[in-house]
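INTERNAL AUDIT FORM
Audit reference: QA-55
Scope: verify that the stored structure record matches its stored sequence.
Auditor: D.O.
Record contents follow.
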Amino acid sequence: MTASPSTKSAPSTKSAKSKLAFRPLPVPQVDVHGFWGDRADAVATRTADILYERCVEARMLEQIDPDRPSPGIVIPFHSPSPDEADRQGAEFTGSTVTTQMFWDSDLGKTIETAAYSLYRRKNPELEKKIDAVIDMYGRLQQEDGYLSSWYQRIQPGKRWTNLRDCHELYCAGHLIEGAVAYYQATGKRKLLDIMCRYADHIASVLGPEPGQKKGYCGHEEIELALVKLARVTGERKYMELARYFIDQRGQQPHYFDEEARARGADPKAYHFKTYEYSQSHIPVREQDKVVGHAVRAMYLYSGMADIATEYGDDTLRAALDLLWDDLTTKSLYITGGLGPSAHNEGFTSDYDLPNESAYAETCAAVGLVFWASRMLGMGPNARYADMMERALYNGSISGLSLDGSLFFYENPLESRGKHNRWKWHRCPCCPPNIGRMVASIGSYFYSLADDALAVHLYGDSIARFDISGVPVSLTQASRYPWDGAVEITLEPQAPVEFTLHLRIPAWSASAGLKVNGEAITLAEITSDGYAAIKRTWKKGDNVRLDLEMPIERLYANPQVRQDAGRVALSRGPLIYCVEASDNDGQPHRLTLPRTATIEAQHRPELLGGVVTLSTAALADVSDGWQDGLYRPEPPATAETRLTAIPYFAWDNREPGEMLVWLRDG
């Protein structure tokens, strides 16, 4: 595919230490095929159009179009239960009015999804519709640059009065990300110019100078968006604004208290009672525990990682490492999902990881991908890339049906058969979030430094980049994640020296590496889980990486009471589950013997082509239990076969039970 003019390198925004930084390749510089290509195609052919149409159906465009009368409050004050009418195949219904407050964010993510989808697959009708949405925002924008459909059309006169609750900056952040994506993918910069004017306005209102408000957003997001804006425009002022928001968070006197008093409210009347909810309870460098709303936390840590990368800020890096350790050792599901509680859409206490009631919001797993990816900006390290991969292949893409049309908000690890994907959601943040992540998946594969390229993810893809002034094409061929054989071919336009970093996943029991057919001893060149191959690369140079993909039984820390006596299965980057469709309808009766041999089998006809796991198992039988619930003797067991499928693919057939954690025998 021909790169658009916008794929050219942006003006530099480098800091004194940033030559060590690794930055992701822009989406238009990476073509993905194979496993991720299929998913990106589903988004480009179905999801992107669906997102737009369902935004229209929700009446979002009426709110942003200044040429129409204001629609007023569209969403009623009502929170439907998960079994109510907006489930799969039903009509759209509303929830609480607060979701209408951040419709700009949903449109921003929809624009971003459409942008990367348009790059992958021409869709003139969708492009025309997105251009019309952008035109509406252009007409809506005020002379001073301010832009918020909620505060301009629904609650005029109240802008910048409630940053704690009302998502002004969060919405701005998602529109900024949509603008950057649309510029990179299409070369059109109208929305980019609109959002630059808005960012300039924000910088005039909020900041450290006398007369400015000392505020920041209750729902983090704008921080990482401003970094993107700085990188694509070369304007350092946007990076500085992002840094200010990070540094100011949680400082005393607390801005949210002062803001509440200014609008005549009691700060103690805060609905969530504690500023841990928005990670603003203490300054970010003092935080060492992951708390509060899971998505907000992931977005904050993503922004912190960007600023740590850009400024070489070791104080931020130290805090991030403590937070990373806390999350991954005490509060993370095996799927890469996070945030067990529906009450705060976030974290509760250490080791509290219920399966059937797991909230594990799709947006949170997507946010973990964002955070892990940005930690890699400070240098290749498999502790982050392995987790990025875990969340990508499991906890995030489970939120999207295989055909790209239906969505999960919550991603439990156990279901009795009534948890199914939605047509839409009362709070529609997750559909465009998973859409934009999948559509931009190429940017997570590779990152580039001045003298190095890191390969974080494996699979069929082509990357184009310049290094030391030399254009290079890198082609990766692999059946990953079904097979661990990876072949990489490099085609520099002229010989060029740089270091190629290849991730060696922790789940791979052994790996082999060859360069132009010559075996390389991995132990001699591997650091932090990456093999570093430094050489002068020439046209046709070939790298062969063979990763062993063992089937593993995985056990939880004994502190996780919900998983005591249970076992989960994995192969390579994939976590597996058992569904009723493959296991006589009631997988909760199954026990996996420790002595059972587990076999992997490629099933091209199943779920779009997957590798299943199969083994002998035991199943409790119901004979003799017709007369009561309890008896002195345990149930009899019968030999059976257990079949497990990748977790991301569950609930794509008829509804039925599902389990990740099996009884361990």
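Auditor finding: record pair retrieved intact. Residues 553-664 form one domain.
Action required: none
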